[in-house]
Amino acid sequence: MDTLRYPIGQFTAVQEPTEEQRKQFIESITVMTDKLRHSVEGLGLEQLNTPYRPGGWTLQQVVHHLADAETNAYIRFKRGLTEEHPVAGTFREDLWAELNDYKDTPLETSILILEALHSRFVTLLVKLKTTDFKRSVTSPTHGDMTLDVAVQRYSWHSRHHIAQITSLRERMGW
């Protein structure tokens, strides 16, 4: 079950990433929306309403969750750049996934949100100095983390959920 929930493994941070590693994390954010769009391409409503694992979210919920979670993460990141060690907000993702917008909003809406969000985030990230990445935030869920770790978590989160979608497609032969 753990490989169904975490098909790319659980998040592990690189504590002192090199400039090259940081560029790779940023690049993964740059290409994420195209990968997400490709992962759901050609799926019908019945397939989109299939949970990626027993007891898990449907593929549609996963896509809408990505838009919500990454919007929240972007705001937390910007707060980390502009405030001294802020306590980051959190949200009840389990309850948000049950709201009607997750059921009734076309996937393309959330994909467009992610395209715009990632464009802004990458524009911000590419000009940051190494010292900017040393700033920190406190996450109620994950504790204290530097922005270096936050950008890695952001990158991992997208890849993690896209892998949930693609692994279900592979298992189902879609």
From TrEMBL:
It comes from Paenibacillus alginolyticus. InterPro entries: DinB-like, DinB/YfiT-like. Residues 32-165 form the DinB-like domain. One of its GO terms (molecular function) is hydrolase activity. Keywords: Hydrolase. This is Metal-dependent hydrolase.
